[in-house]
Structure formats: structure tokens, C-alpha cells
Design a protein that fits this description.
This protein is an alpha+beta fold. About 50% of the residues lie in helices and about 15% in strands. The chain has 3 domains: about 15-105, no CATH class; about 140-250, Butyryl-CoA Dehydrogenase, subunit A, domain 2; about 260-380, Up-down Bundle (Butyryl-CoA Dehydrogenase, subunit A, domain 3). Helix 4 (about 85-95) runs parallel beside helix 8 and helix 5 (about 105-120) crosses helix 7. The structure holds flavin-adenine dinucleotide. Flavin-adenine dinucleotide binds near residues 141, 148, 360, 363 and 364.
């Protein structure tokens, strides 16, 4: 695969655009060939979970940021690359084909775009550069023990005290809270309310007194998620996005951004490469396996075309259902790929780890059932 795709409905290219596109591709290829050293590629290949080893992520982030490519979809004026869907997809695929380290950066993918869309000028000036230079790492504090799919049942208390809120309660399943410097969270600021009313969307530093992070270990021994306890944590009310009481609207905005780009086609192509490597090492070359892998390749191509159409507003779905569609298809495809990889190499520790690591993908950022409900509603099912 070279990362190119064609989809009816996408605007046709002029010859000037073709030349610009070829120049872009050449620049990306040259950059990746020069900067992706063998140790970085080895770290990329060795990745089983959502992100590569910390040292490799740091080195790769710094190289990308120096080139202005760390935040592909952010506008240039905020330090992003300002790429079109086509450019973003080419870069993802070209990186995948060279086993670049996998960066799972919540700052770039979720809260950054939200701050760009809905943050104040002061928030943009404070948070965006710190995300790009790696000073701030973010985690997401939405789920609570009694509020998962039914997120609006959340009860973390935000009591107003002068210019601050005092937070009391807990969050659960918070990915990478152990290394985050900041958390964006939803809390209930109007105690008598239920559901999506009376919430506030806050940006909170993780070193505030009263925050306690406790690990949750997965069945395979990995440590990614946590319980986070708030024992009277004081945080400024000004550090919020949206209105006090209107946090649900902000959270929905955030989720439409986050669900769409959690599992990228680059991640899927990396998983395909791993499955093929595993099959080759296990000496498996049967036509039926090759057919199965080719089918999975085609599903990635289809997803990629859909991704481009979504970006160009051509799917006929508004933002939230379109993001649900991409999240659902991408995560279920990721599981199908690692399943094929495990069947091809059942004794491989790597294939086993990769298989286990993708099981949770259809739970986090909304379960598949929840996304199917959203899509059903969008197409008018009762
Ligand atoms: C690895 C991992 C990482 C995570 N990271 C984060 C994080 O960083 N931050 C964060 O805030 N949260 C995180 N989560 C939490 C995740 O968002 C929730 O687990 C998810 O929303 C489901 O909620 P729940 O676990 O409470 O399950 P429940 O909501 O109790 O659901 C249980 C089952 O019932 C089904 N179900 C529920 N409601 C419906 C319905 N209306 N129709 C049909 N079926 C339904 C679900 O699909 C599921 O199969 C993470 C979860 C995992 C597993």
C-alpha cells in the first residue's frame, strides 16, 4: 500500500494540485527516511499497546515538532501542520510503512483541538505550546464507577468557593493518569441536577493537593488505567471550557473529536505489518491466510476512503454520528487484524500481547453498542 486512495465524490485534482501533492509526498518520504533511525523503527515494531516506549515517543515527538508536523490537523497558526485529510492519511501510512513509533497523545488528538475550537485566547496561549513541546501531558476524567455508557450520571462534586471549585469524588479507568500533568474532566457543579444538566468541564493540574492516583492492572499485566480520587481539590473556576452548568455541551464537542481519531488507519496498517511478520516467522504462507489478510487490507482501504469523505463532509452524517461510524469500524477492524495475527502465530508472545491489547478498544471512548445506538438514531431507526 502506498497510502493513496480514490473515492468517487472527492474533488478531482488539477495538475497544479497533483504537482503539490507529489512534492508533499516526496518531502514526507525524505523526512521519514532521514529521521527514523533504526532504534526508533525497532521501538515502533516492538509496540503492542497504544503507544511505543516513552523514550522513543519523546525523541520522535521532538523531531516531528521541530519540523512542525507533531499536530497534523491543528491549524498552522497554532503550531500545527494544517494538513488536509489526504496529506494526513499519506503521512500516517508512510509512517506506518516505516514502523515509526506510535504516539498516543491525548493533548494533540483531543483536548488540543477542543481548546482551539472553544478555548479562550488565554487558554490557547497557555496550553497549546505546552502540548506541542511535551511539557503538558493530558488524561481524560469522564468515567466514574457509576457512570460509564451513561456518562451523564456522573457525580464528582464541584462546589463553588470564591474563584475556585472544590472537587470531591472519584474517576475510574483514567488512561495514563500516572504520567499526566493535566486532566480534563466533567464534574457536577449544581448538586440538585441530574443527567447532562448542571455540569462543568474543567482543566485541572494533576499535582494539585488532594489528588490521588491508584493503578488498575490489566489481565495481561499492562498498566495503563487508574482510579483517581479527589479529596477536596481546589482548582480555579476560570480553568474551564464552556459555561458553568454547560459542561455537557463541551463534553459532546470533545467526544466528537476524540472518537473519530482514536484508532487511525496508520495504527491498523502497523497491526497488519505485525500480523504478516508473525505469520512469516511461524512459516505460515497458506492461500487462505493470504486471502484473509488481503481482505483486511481492503477493509483498511475502505475505512481510509470513508475517513477522507468524513473530513470533506461527504458522508451525509453530522459530526457526532460520523465520528461514531469511524470509531466503530476502526476498532472492530483492529480487533479482527490482531485476531488474524494470533491465529497465524498462536505461540508468539508478541501476537498474544497485541491481541489482548486491542480487546478494550471496543469499550473505551464509548462501547460498540453505544455507537451503534447513535448511528441507529442518526439514520432514523425507532
Ligand atoms: C482500557 C480502557 C481505557 C479507558 N480509558 C478511559 C479514560 O481515559 N477516561 C475515561 O473517562 N474513561 C475511560 N475508560 C472508560 C470507558 O469509557 C468505559 O468503560 C465505557 O464508557 C463503558 O462504561 P462501563 O465500563 O461503565 O460499562 P457499562 O456502561 O456499565 O456497560 C456495560 C455493558 O452494557 C452495554 N450497554 C450499556 N448501555 C447500553 C445501551 N444503552 N444500549 C446497549 N448496550 C448498552 C455496554 O455496551 C457494555 O457492553 C476506559 C475503559 C477501558 C476499558
Amino acid at each position: 500500500m502506498d497510502g493513496s486512495f480514490y473515492m468517487e465524490g472527492l474533488p478531482a485534482h488539477t495538475s497544479d494540485e497533483d504537482a503539490a501533492s507529489a512534492a508533499f509526498r516526496a518531502a514526507v518520504d525524505a523526512f521519514l527516511d532521514t529521521e527514523l533511525t533504526e532504534d526508533l523503527r525497532a521501538a515502533g515494531r516492538a509496540t503492542t499497546g497504544l503507544k511505543s516506549a516513552s523514550w522513543a515517543c519523546k525523541v520522535w515527538r521532538e523531531k516531528l515538532n521541530a519540523r512542525g508536523w507533531y499536530a497534523p490537523t491543528w491549524p498552522v497558526e497554532h503550531g500545527g501542520a494544517g494538513w488536509s485529510a489526504e496529506q494526513r492519511l499519506y503521512f500516517e501510512n508512510a509512517s506506518a510503512m516505516r514502523d515509526a513509533p506510535i504516539l498516543m497523545n491525548s493533548g494533540v488528538r483531543t483536548i488540543g483541538p477542543l481548546i482551539i475550537e472553544a478555548g479562550t485566547p488565554a487558554q490557547k496561549a497557555h496550553y497549546l505550546p505546552a502540548i506541542l513541546n511535551g511539557e503538558h501531558e493530558w488524561c481524560q476524567g469522564f468515567s466514574e464507577p457509576q457512570a460509564g455508557s451513561d456518562l451523564s450520571a456522573l457525580s464528582l462534586k464541584a462546589e463553588r468557593d470564591g474563584d475556585d471549585f472544590i472537587l470531591t469524588g472519584s474517576k475510574i479507568w483514567t488512561s495514563f493518569a500516572q504520567q499526566a500533568t493535566h486532566m480534563f474532566l466533567l464534574a457536577r457543579c449544581e448538586p440538585e441536577t441530574h443527567g447532562g444538566k448542571g455540569l462543568v468541564f474543567l482543566l485541572v493540574e494533576m499535582d494539585r493537593p488532594g489528588i490521588e492516583v491508584r493503578p488498575i492492572r490489566f489481565i495481561d499485566g499492562e498498566y495503563e488505567t487508574n482510579e483517581v480520587f479527589f479529596n477536596g481539590v481546589r482548582t480555579p473556576a476560570a480553568n474551564r471550557i464552556g459555561e458553568i452548568g454547560g459542561g455537557w455541551k463541551t463534553a459532546k464537542q470533545l467526544m466528537a473529536i476524540a472518537r473519530g481519531n482514536n484508532t487511525t488507519t496508520g495504527l491498523l496498517r502497523r497491526a497488519m505489518r505485525a500480523a504478516r511478520r508473525g505469520a512469516a516467522a511461524a512459516g505460515l504462507t497458506s492461500p487462505s491466510l493470504q486471502m484473509r489478510l488481503a481482505e483486511l487490507d481492503m477493509r483498511i482501504d475502505t475505512l481510509e476512503a470513508l475517513d477522507a469523505c468524513t473530513d470533506n463532509g461527504l458522508t451525509g452524517l453530522n459530526t457526532a454520528p460520523a465520528a461514531s461510524q469511524l470509531k466503530l469500524l476502526a476498532t472492530e477492524l483492529h480487533q479482527a487484524i490482531t485476531e488474524a495475527g494470533l491465529e497465524a502465530a498462536p505461540n508468539s508472545d508478541f501476537a498474544q500481547a497485541k491481541y489482548l491489547a486491542t480487546r478494550a478498544a471496543t469499550i473505551y471512548s464509548g462501547t460498540s453498542e453505544v455507537h451503534r445506538n447513535i448511528l441507529a438514531k442518526a439514520i432514523g431507526c425507532p
